Amino acid sequence: MKIWMINHYATPPEWGSSTRHYTLAKELKKYGHEVTVIASSSQHLLKSKPPQGTHSLGIWQDKHVKFLLLPSPDYQGNGIRRLWNMLYFAGQVLQLPKQINEQPDVIIGSSVHPFAVWAAEHLAARYQIPFCFEVRDLWPQTLIDMKAIRKYHPLTLILSKLEAYLYRKAHLIITLLPYAYEYISKFNIPPSKIAYLPNGVDLNLFPTVALPQEPQEQNSFIE
After folding, report:
1. Is the residue at 116 inside a domain?
2. Per-residue pLDDT of the chain (223 residues; tens, 9 = 90+)
């Protein structure tokens, strides 16, 4: 099966720290699946710029996983340029059929932000294939809880409508949060449609170390 994972902030291990999708893709490869991770060429979790820069489609690949790095404008901080970077990336996702002669069997759209997930859903609808929604942050609820946005702000209302739309359209909802189903069920989503898949640990990334020795018992008391 050909699987596309769309996450704005995903990175290969050597370029950044957002490696959940690289590791998932590597594990899926063991079961015979072919996985492509689609991410942005310009985002704050990259340790360094991709070799091709940020203005053209880039490809990073090892024996396990292929990354497509979509061109996106640079930004600093959390201002309007970061929002433009998010929207621009979503637009680039929608342009993928014009850029590569390839079609997946299923598309997974992963937040942080929902605009990339919306683009993933539209792309899956265009290909007429299943769409899965991976929920990493609860937008806009996370922003409300962090007091970054008011509950009845116009943007909050837009994001709430978008969130409900994506829950309805998803064939499967994957969440990293253990009790997210309590929140998602408020949208009349049945529990059978929600799968809990937290971050794991790839032990191959860590060197083998000896287990600590048990301390020896002392038979005498020393003041």
Report:
1. yes
2. 999 999 999 988 877 778 889 999 999 999 999 999 999 988 877 766 665 555 567 888 888 899 999 988 888 887 888 889 999 999 999 999 888 888 999 999 998 888 999 999 999 999 999 999 999 877 777 777 777 778 888 878 888 899 999 999 999 999 998 888 888 998 999 999 999 998 877 777 677 766 566 665 555 555 5
Number of domains in the chain: 1
The CB density around residue 33, as the number of other CB atoms within 10 Å, is 14
Measure the CA dihedral 140/95/124/53, to 10°: -70
Confirm whether 163 is domain-assigned.
yes
Contact assessment for residue 20 and residue 10, using Cβ atoms and an 8 Å cutoff: yes
The DSSP letter of residue 112 is S
How far apart are alpha carbons 166 and 15 in whole angstroms?
30
69 contacts 99 by C-beta, under 8 angstroms:
no
CATH classification of the domain holding 8: 3.40.50.2000
**What torsion do the CA atoms of 154, 159, 164, 165 make, to the nearest 10 degrees?**
110
Structure tokens given for 139: 């937008």
Residue type for 15, please? W
What is the chain's Cα-based Rg? Answer: 20
pTM of the model: 0.83
The whole-angstrom separation of Cα 9 and Cα 17 is 9
Decide if 11 is inside a domain.
yes
Residue 37: strand, helix, or coil: strand
